[in-house]
Amino acid sequence: MKVLVIGGGGREHALAWKLNLSPKVHKVYVAPGNGGTALDDRLINVPITDVKALREWAQAEKIGLAVVGPEAPLAAGVVDEFRAHGLRVFGPTKAAAQLESSKAFSKAFMKRHGIPTAEYESFTDAALAHAYVDAKGAPIVVKADGLAAGKGVVVAMTAAEAHEAIDFMLLDNKLGVVHNDGGARVVIEEFLQGEEASFIVLCDGKNVTALATSQDHKRLLDGDEGPNTGGMGAYSPAPVVTADVHARAMREIILPTIRGMEKDGIPYTGFLYAGLMIDAQGRPKTLEFNCRMGDPETQPIMMRLKSDLSDVLAAAVDGKLDQVELQWDRRTALGVVMAAHGYPMNPRKGDVITGLPAEADDAVVFHAGTELKDGAVHVTGGRVLCVTALADSVKLAQQRVYEVAAGIHFDGAQYRRDIGHRAVKS
Questions:
Q1: What is the pLDDT of residues 140-180, one digit of tens each?
Q2: Which of 76, 218, 214 is nearest to 151 (CA)?
Q3: Nearest alpha carbon to residue 155 among 230, 232, 227, 220
Q4: What are the b/e assignments for 66-105, b being 16+ CB within 10 Å?
Q5: CA 293/CA 272 separation, integer angstroms
Q6: Please, are residues 56 and 81 in contact by the beta-carbon 8 Å criterion?
Q7: 333-371 pLDDT, tens digit each
Q8: Helix (H, G, I), strand (E, B), or coil: what is residue 255?
């Protein structure tokens, strides 16, 4: 079978790497791919991003299964386009992807279906948004409504920070947010206390299968300091997601979401990522939904998955997820993101990367913002690499990852030295 992975980030590199391990898959294409997928002679980059052109290429190549990685092609309707022409594709439709592409849609959906989340209001008028912050006080959370590559959230610890975020998102729109209604909009919600975890499942419209638990580190700097990012590292499993928390998340959040989408006439297929805030009593609330696997959570999760990913995705496309049971490596997988100079607001491009190691059984370097040019790998984006390793404990996985990362060099490289610190403490 020929398989196509749509996207060009670290998540897509990890999905393609895992699919390539299947004996049932004889070719893995990545569109458009990156420097890491270009370096791997087992993978083939396809330089197409236009939805219609990619569908035509997939038809001509007789692609047996396509899986969509990032949010932008989902919001552009790539699943609808592929399905309309009889192609087997795993991902949510454009309508279902609104759970991610519009924070306002998502919050209204959760309110309507009684799914636990933070109190909120939506605003297009800056003056009304400012008045709301004045009435509620800080800490408070300001979110851009639309796709902002993981950077459209400001956790404001002071009212002044919240006011600045409102002006930045509503008046300047410097984030380049893609808004559904053409104009800027923000969602302002209550600040939730607790510990965050990533809860990712596969859905086939009716059935749900949970992936291994994981935890992301959003802040740029050690000790969870600095600005929010798309994610600076992750590990799996996440000790904070106990058996009880897992059961509650499925019962109170995931299943009501799938049933609610079905009830609203928008059956949900694809990966569904619920960002959870788990309070001291083990009660989860939904911070956000993503209609895809998380990045960098995908990298450690794929390293722990023992099942054949092509079988799992094929069952999901056929509506047979209830017949699948996933097998996991008992070890811990941990990934550390190496980011470009100036990330997250002004990442510098063009720096040459050296010291990339060969793939090992217990360590793989997944690429994100890279390209292969004139025989050298160059930085092309904010999050550049995700160094990922498997070991018998979080501490040993940390040691292995940082040992590999120390040998990789590019000017201005920045990465956290404490990924997995919560799990080490627990």
A1: 999 888 666 555 788 999 999 999 999 988 887 655 555 55
A2: 218
A3: 227
A4: bbbbbbbbbbbbbbbbbbeeebbbbbbbbbbbbbbbbbbb
A5: 7
A6: no
A7: 999 999 999 999 999 999 999 999 999 999 999 999 999
A8: helix
Which residues touch 389 (CB under 8 Å, ≥6 apart)? Answer: 303, 333, 334, 335, 362, 363, 364, 397, 400, 401, 404
Q: How far apart are CA 8 and CA 49, in angstroms?
A: 10
Give the C-alpha separation, 276 to 285, whole Å: 6
Rounded CA gap, 269 and 142, in Å? 29
Does residue 213 sit in helix, strand or coil?
Answer: coil
Residue pair 101/149 in contact (Cβ under 8 Å)? The answer is no
Q: How far apart are CA 17 and CA 11, in angstroms?
A: 10
Residues 279 and 196: beta-carbon distance below 8 Å = no
**Distance between CA atoms of residues 318 and 5, nearest Å:** 18
Q: How far apart are CA 41 and CA 152, in angstroms?
A: 36
Q: Which residues contact 52 (CB under 8 A, 6 or more apart)?
A: 81
Contact (Cβ atoms closer than 8 angstroms) between residue 389 and residue 362: yes
Decide if 320 contacts 311 (C-beta within 8 A). Answer: no
Q: Residue 330 contacts by C-beta under 8 Å, 6 or more apart in sequence? A: none
- Contact call for residues 180 and 146 (beta carbons, < 8 A): yes
How many CB atoms are closer than 10 A to CB 403?
Answer: 13
Tokens in use for 65?
């299964």
State which amino acid sits at residue 216.
Answer: D
Angle at 407 between CA 402 and CA 413, to 5 degrees: 80
Q: Is the dihedral of CA 99, 100, 101, 102 positive or negative?
A: positive
pLDDT tens-digit profile of 207-243?
999 999 999 999 999 999 998 899 999 999 999 999 9
Give the list of residues 6+ apart from residue 317 with CB closer than 8 angstroms, or none.
65, 88, 89, 90, 204, 269
* Tokens standing for residue 263: 């009830």
